[in-house]
Design a protein that fits this description.
The chain is mainly alpha-helical. The chain contains three helices and no strands. α1 (17-27) packs across α3 (60-75). The protein is globular, with a radius of gyration of 11 Å.
């Protein structure tokens, strides 16, 4: 059973930071997020099965927000 699975299987968009983080936590449970580059994070996100947004719409600010959310979620 998946610990953080997106139970609704809803499509993921860039503004769905928390839902993206839950999917990333499930797919990459041992990721070293402090060493993760924004380029690699971007690749991981667009390769998520439920990701439905346009990859060219992302910017560093969005990726940093997702990374911060992921860090906060794993630090609690």
């Amino acid at each position: 059973m998946l610990k953080y699975a997106n139970m609704s299987n809803q499509s993921l968009y860039w503004d769905s930071a928390y839902e993206i983080v839950l999917e990333l936590m499930d797919k990459y449970p041992n990721a070293d997020i402090e060493a993760l580059s924004l380029k690699e994070l971007n690749r991981w996100i667009v390769n998520l099965p439920n990701f439905a947004d346009d990859p060219v719409l992302v910017n560093d600010g969005i990726l940093k927000d997702i990374l911060r959310e992921w860090y906060e979620e794993t630090s609690t």
